[in-house]
Amino acid sequence: MSWADLGLPDAPEPSGNETPAPRPRKEPKPPKEPKPPREPKEPKPPKTPKPPKPPRESGGQGDGEGGSRTPLILGIVAGVLLVAVVVTLGFALTRGSSTASPADTPSSDASTAAPTAQPSPSPSASSDAVGVPVALKFGGTGFTLVDKNAKTVFSYEWRDKAADAVTELTAAFGAAPTQRVEPGDGSSYPDYTVYQWEGFLLYDMVDGTGGAQRATFTQPSYATFSRNEVGPISMTAEHGLKIGSPVTAVRAAGPSQDVPRGNVGSIRFIFDQSRSSVGPPVQYSMIADTDGSTVTAVLYYFAAGG
């Protein structure tokens, strides 16, 4: 299709020497006029505060809120505050001056301060308690285990049965005794069970032997020692005599009788012979055996003929 077919003139043929016409320059746009400044808006008038709602009157059971709770809450708060004040006041009063800090306490010179009265010690319940035995004391009616304050730990009389004494002496001496039977004469003198520790012997009659009865026999038991200490226990006789005391001291103690013994030079000294009796209670004399120069043994025995 050509321009002629369209009813249009033929387009001119461009020549090679023709220069295209320059494009027309666009006119610059005129500057926009500045917008006038906005006028400030008028401030809105302050809102008028709404009047407070009147307190709701307390209603009956059908009221949803159950009436105003404000008085109840205020009452509870006031009660709690009152309790807190009372507790605080009571605590402050009971503490007294103990809450004062060291800085608030006036210092005083220890040399000029008045001495503080010390409370007198109250008697202790243990002051009457009996301690462990330290000595075995002999007398006319028997022997006694005593503690360091001379309080009686255990006491034995000659007519007592020996079982308890053996138990107590075993504990005190720290060792059990050996045991044997010493036969009597078969007619009037009974057999004796002998409880023997190293340095101490306790003789206890076998009731009914030799026709003797413990309840009436003159010598139901007796004792002898040949050491001043048996284990941790000191042996304490009367008249201040000990094993090893010289014969001169024995004579000076005033014996009732002295009897020569089978060994050459040995002498038996009998003290308090007149107190030997069947009692009650049974009483014995004290006997000091010597080798002629010193005491070798002490016996508590029934010494007839005083």
From TrEMBL:
Biased composition (Basic and acidic residues): 24-45
Record key words, sorted: Membrane, Transmembrane, Transmembrane helix
Name of this chain's protein: Uncharacterized protein
Source species: Microbacterium lacticum
Membrane-traversing stretches: 72-93
Segments of this protein annotated with the region Disordered: 1-68, 96-129
